[in-house]
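Why do we care about 3D structure at all? Because function follows from shape, and shape follows, mostly, from sequence. That is the central idea of this module. The next example makes it concrete: a single protein chain, its amino acid sequence, and then its structure expressed as tokens.
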Amino acid sequence: MLGFLVNTFSMSSVAPPSFVLVLFVTSVLALTWVLVASSCYWHRSALWSKLVFLVDFCFVVAFVTGVYILGWVSIVRCVSVDATQGSIPLELKFIPWSDGVFGTSSEHMCVLLQDCFVFGIMNVILFTLSSVFALLQARSTKVES
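And the structure:
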């Protein structure tokens, strides 16, 4: 979803706004971190658990920032969005609605933004759980000297 939005902006020669870029970059980095952490997590050491907690907590903060920036989309009714009538919020006016790039409609782009908002909330919850579990494991694992 986020890649589609970034691609739509790029094809329209418009710089993607911060509310798309923050979640896109954070999601790409988080995916990389999940792959690295899951492949290296077999150590089960207290130091590795503390590192996982720290990095996961940083991702929680980044996703909360992205959700906060995109929070305005939660109150927009996507059924009544009309890019030509000027009835859309200021943040949505920067989106290339239907200039023939992909033939997308304003409702489609609005729903995509709302899906990205929900995706960001899900990532906040999952990374919070992951960081709490890593902290619990770090506290229960004995430090070897």
